[in-house]
Amino acid sequence: MSEITKAPISPLNTLPAWNSLTTHREVMRSFVLREQFALDPDRFDRFAFHFDDILVDLSKNLIENQTLALLCALARECRVEEWRDAMFAGAAINNTEQRSVLHTALRNRSGRPVKVHGRDVMPDVKAVQERMRNFAEGVRSGALNGYRGDKFTDVVNIGIGGSDLGPKMVCRALTAYGDRSLNMHFVSNVDATDLMETLRVCKPESTLVLIASKTFTTQETMTNAFSIRHWFLESGAPECAVAQHFAALSTNTAGVEAFGIPAERMFEFWDWVGGRYSLWSAIGLPIAISIGYERFEQLLEGAYRMDEHFRREPFERNLPVLLALLSVWYVNFYGAETHAVLPYDDYLSLLPSYLQQADMESNGKSVQKNGADVKWPTGPVIWGEPGTNGQHAFYQLIHQGTRLIPADFIVPSVSQNPLGDHHEKLLANFLAQTEALMKGKTRSEALAEMHAQGMAEHLAEALASHRSFDGNRPTTSIVCRTLDPQTLGSLIALYEHKIFVQGVIWNVNSFDQWGVELGKQLAKQILPELEDDDPVESHDSSTNGLINAIKEMRRESW
Ligand code: F6P
């Protein structure tokens, strides 16, 4: 088993490559992207990379050859290769939970064994996949149906976080491949509105419910699970029909049985699959139901191909490594605090929220693997919206605000919905935004433009600084041929491994999430305090004041 997990490492900010990057950053103060493009007609060729049907253009980033060389040296000094190999080999790299991190085993199509504690997990993975195939195809064909013989028309996935965001994002992204006679619903919020509004359009006798929870203890999910079971039984369905209308996607067999879902309706996964990395596991069952198992396999294939790329390519051409290093460059050397994900594809509208969990729950850490405080910024805030909508909302700040916001622009060349010149307009906007962010507009260009419009000199002078842009705003363009299952699989795995590499460099454990626990504990404590009439004094004055005011408002409305 890998020794890397025990190897001492020097603090990141004392590594030779870090020091060289600090010096290089000073040199880069005079770096102007627009000038670089003018000087070097080959800049695109130098910094554009191809992977299957995906083109990743890094040339509009604040980099030159030397930058990437130094960043790759940093990755080597941080022993990214060894950590990567340890992850793929099943080492317990999630050190605070003593777990392997093997979402890659779920899409391992090589025939290689993957061992956890000396045991090959691949037979178990394949067995669950075979059951998923049969179940998904049974639901799609109508061979598996409701207790009155109705074909399922609605599938309600009850889950939250990783048990919701991944399958929801993928089902939305692959709508064009989905069975349109099956309505896919995702209920996550404990706010009953989420469930109630969903159930308004569902009929119990033709609704299939998937309870998705790694732990099968999550408050929101279990509350929604019991409420939907109540809705189902209240409709007159017999208790024994629960087995026919409910399935569980979980690691907790005992919890699933206690809920009343029989073993043959439980699709298992394992503690070495992190929640936010679980869409490839049984948690992906709604995806397989929606698009069919064969296409689900294409999604796995795409991810597998990216895994192989990540395992084999030298850092200088390794896309997840390069994206991670760029992020480190901006976060640690430019002080960037956020990173925008801007898909120019409405089908990818949920990608930013999916990546928020993937990235921020993974690298939102301020403690190193050994428990020492980090002395460098770690994971940035991830945010975004689909283009072109964002252009009319927040792009102003990306163009002219005081903060540097690196952004990923993602677009398919070919639309799944060709209609008139819509897609050409979408593409034109995609291209125009990255060009504008790179080039900016000088004061003299702004003045010339106003003069050409016949504007009075004094007015043009007054407006010139408002109408000029610095440019030099970094963007990465990710262009795919079309958003098919395989391409999407590769894209998601690209981001997963990017996040992994960042975590190795920052020396944080990207696979735990202790920070979310305190809120859960306090919510459990507060819940009974809301239920009686007594004034609450056990918290700070703000929390007490809020609890008591809420109780008062609720009393008044009864
Ligand atoms: O609270 C955070 C979290 O543990 C996530 O990491 C996870 O994806 C989500 O809750 C849901 O957990 P589960 O699948 O166990 O219900």
Map the helices and strands.
Layout: H1 16-27, H2 33-39, H3 43-47, E1 48-51, E2 54-57, H4 65-77, H5 80-88, E3 115-116, E4 119-120, H6 122-141, E5 154-158, H7 165-173, E6 183-187, H8 192-199, E7 207-212, H9 219-234, H10 242-245, E8 246-250, H11 253-259, E9 266-268, H12 285-291, H13 293-312, H14 319-333, E10 338-343, H15 351-363, E11 381-383, H16 395-400, E12 407-412, H17 422-439, H18 443-452, H19 457-464, E13 475-480, H20 485-506, H21 517-531, H22 541-557
Parallel strand pairs: 5-6, 5-7, 7-8, 8-9, 10-11, 10-12, 12-13
Antiparallel strand pairs: 1-2, 2-13, 3-4
Helix pairs in contact: 1-4, 4-14, 6-12, 7-12, 7-15, 12-13, 13-20, 14-20, 15-20, 18-19
Describe this structure in words.
With 558 residues, this protein is of the alpha/beta class. Helix content is 47%, strand content 10%. It has 22 helices and 13 strands. A hairpin with a 2-residue loop joins strand 3 and strand 4. The structure holds 6-O-phosphono-beta-D-fructofuranose. The site of 6-O-phosphono-beta-D-fructofuranose has 14 residues, from loops.
The average pLDDT is 97
How would you characterize the largest beta sheet? 6 strands, mixed
Structural class determined from secondary elements? alpha/beta
- How many beta-strand runs? 13
Intertermini distance = 62 Å
As residue ranges, the low-confidence spans are: none
- Using only C-alpha atoms, the radius of gyration works out to 26 Å
Number of helices: 22
